[in-house]
């Protein structure tokens, strides 16, 4: 998949914890999930850089650190996200030059995701900007990507969005923009940005396929990733 590498050269993934008098039971849990992550090939919040930053934060008290540890463990125990996908998402979220978001959908043509006419249309022709996160008409004069895309501003938020349903959605389309065009909250930086990220078809605005990364299928919290090239190849057959 290598999402982040396609946007910017991948940075190192060294995970370093400074214990800072963290109780052994907390460190044992973190180390358990670090090993589990590599062994199973799944991404876990407890093994993320976000967890590392919390543990090493000198301005956060132990009570709050334990709160986040327990919260992350609860979410880590709900389903799974492929390791490389999770790592790339975290890096994109932390990259100030990238604005990452997700459009959740339930109209994907199950049971065969790859042959979904909806997804093949989206990844080849673009994602229509409607006036609502799930459906609806275009709002005149309102063309922010936030109409259809939720910004992913933390890895915890991304984990929640990927593993849960929104109005019976069974997956989500990952979208990434340069931050000089779209801000982290998925609003346009200026009028020029609209001309760059959209293409117009039949009086409708479509986010160009070049800003779409792929589709994450979600079933009971278990995520499977399909890069956009999968659907573009399907149409070319």
What would you call the shape? Answer: globular
- Structural class, by secondary structure, is alpha+beta
- Spell out the helices and strands N to C: HHHHHEHEEHEHEEEEH
Model regions low in confidence, pLDDT < 50 over at least 5 residues: 7-15, 132-141
Biggest sheet: strands, sense, closure? 5 strands, antiparallel
Q: What is the total tally of β strands?
A: 8
How much strand content do the residues show? Answer: 15-25%
Q: Rg, please?
A: 19 Å
Integer tally of domains: 2
Tally of DSSP helical segments: 9
Describe this structure in words.
By secondary structure, the chain is of the alpha+beta class. The chain folds into 2 domains: 17-79, no CATH class; 90-236, no CATH class. It has 9 helices and 8 strands. The chain has helices spanning 3-7, 24-40, 49-55, 62-76, 83-94, 117-125, 155-163, 191-197, 228-236, and strands at 98-104, 127-128, 150-151, 171-178, 198-201, 204-207, 212-219, 222-227. The strands form 2 sheets. It has a 5-stranded antiparallel beta sheet. A 3-stranded antiparallel beta sheet has the order 2-6-5. A hairpin with a 2-residue loop joins strand 5 (198-201) and strand 6 (204-207). Helix 6 (117-125) crosses helix 9 (228-236). The two termini are 21 Å apart. The model is unreliable at 7-15 and 132-141 (pLDDT under 50).
């Amino acid at each position: 998949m290598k999402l982040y590498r396609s946007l910017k050269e991948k940075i190192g993934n060294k995970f370093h914890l400074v214990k800072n008098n963290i109780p052994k039971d907390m460190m044992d849990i973190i180390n358990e999930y670090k090993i589990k992550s590599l062994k199973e090939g799944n991404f876990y919040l407890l093994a993320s850089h976000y967890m590392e930053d919390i543990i090493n934060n000198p301005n956060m008290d132990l009570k709050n650190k334990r709160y986040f540890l327990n919260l992350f463990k609860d979410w880590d125990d709900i389903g799974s996200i492929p390791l490389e996908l999770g790592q790339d998402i975290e890096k994109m979220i932390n990259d100030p030059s990238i604005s990452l978001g997700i459009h959740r959908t339930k109209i994907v043509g199950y049971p065969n995701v790859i042959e979904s006419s909806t997804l093949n249309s989206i990844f080849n022709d673009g994602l229509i900007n409607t006036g609502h996160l799930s459906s609806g008409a275009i709002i005149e004069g309102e063309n922010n990507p936030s109409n259809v895309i939720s910004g992913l501003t933390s890895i915890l938020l991304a984990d929640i969005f990927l593993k849960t349903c929104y109005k019976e959605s069974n997956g989500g389309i990952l979208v990434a923009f340069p931050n000089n065009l779209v801000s982290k909250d998925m609003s346009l930086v200026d009028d020029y940005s609209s001309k760059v990220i959209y293409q117009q078809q039949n009086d409708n605005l479509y986010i160009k396929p070049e800003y779409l990364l792929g589709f994450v299928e979600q079933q009971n919290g278990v995520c499977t990733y399909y890069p956009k090239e999968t659907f573009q190849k399907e149409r070319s057959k």
